[in-house]
Model the fold of this input.
Amino acid sequence: MMEDLWQVAAGVFQVWIFVVVFLIMMPAMFGLSLGVTGVYIQILVQILEWATVRIQRGRQEQPSVPVPLPNGIIERAAGSMEEEMVQRRRSQSLAAGEFALSDAIYFYKKGVESIMDDQVTQRFSSEELASWNLLTRTNQNFRYISLRLTIFWGIGVFVRYCVLFPLRITLAIIGLSWLVIGTVLVGFLPDGGVKQWLSELIHLTCYRICARGLSATISYHNRENKPQKGGICVANHTSPIDVAILASDGCYAMVGQIHGGLMGVIQRSMVKSCPHVWFERSEMKDRHTVTNRLRAHVAAKTKLPILIFPEGTCINNTSVMMFKKGSFEIGGTIYPVAIKYDARFGDAFWNSSKYNMVSYLLRMMTSWAIVVNVWYLPPMTMKADEDAAQFANRVKSAIARQGGLLDLAWDGGLKRGKVKESYKEEQQKMYSSIVVGQNSSTAPPTGDTEDTVHTG
Done:
């Protein structure tokens, strides 16, 4: 009996190794796809569409099933402070320089709107879905609508936790192990073309294996605009895996703070074979040190393009928030990239205030899949009549338009901090100019903050 069990276990292990090595790793190393993931995604789409129809019918049959809240709970008035205040003052026939107590109503209304549903806080919670995607993130009450829906949900739990999760863990361990071992070995080679070629090959291969470990289906658009050496690649930031998504299609020099533990081991091994730019914690606080080191990297036109996420924190896949201007003071060509995840198959957003890295990766590896679109935008350079903050805002707007994301002026740093006094003063100056009758084109802050750049 025991011999039979060992034979069965050996057979399962052989099949497992065959699937991992020959059906996933080998195609990933050469950037090929056997089409299995595409078929899997098509099946998922059909199942989710069926579940949506069944839920809609179930709501009619069972009115007690709760309905998800809409994305916004209030309707905001369009228009700027200047437009609304000028219109209000004209209707009251107020002379220039004359104060009206009724002006306080505008600020009262804006304050209540922000308390109920401000534009910043809602960017750090998971993106709402139109219907349930058979995952635990959204309303679980839907699985009680019918027996068939419950069965599909149960099968999905088994597939995600007992089949996909072990497979993804295996691929992630292999990819990271190869990255550490390969970069350390390449680091012993003398500098030259061979070392650079091997380093780029190892990075590209390992990131592709890790991406397959998340069942990632990535669609790259406009590859003729891919970042070139000596340039700076800037992208909106949703998740730490943004790095793996972009690095699966090209090699980049990473920028970030030196960490300890496993992340520190990976960083120290990577820098042996490739000129990544890692900073000590004390250096990250010194904007001049950061800028000078990045400027020196860009000046060497043979080095890989730098990958930077100017938002400085993860945003929930619905918006692009303020780009810190430090990345745009370095000089050189900026290569914008827009990243947009399909939230139906899994929530890629990392809410670092709610989940640590281990919990986040567990959620990612037990989701259905990671489906993402990546757009390479035409390269951009600073114009003669604009400063770094204006240039950063122009790049941000281009990324938002291409990715179908909201273009917000607010600083993502408000996730953990308070509004700076300078922001309040700008609003006060704007109101003062309206009262005295001066035209003001002042806009909310668009990049004039600390310049420290961040990655995943």
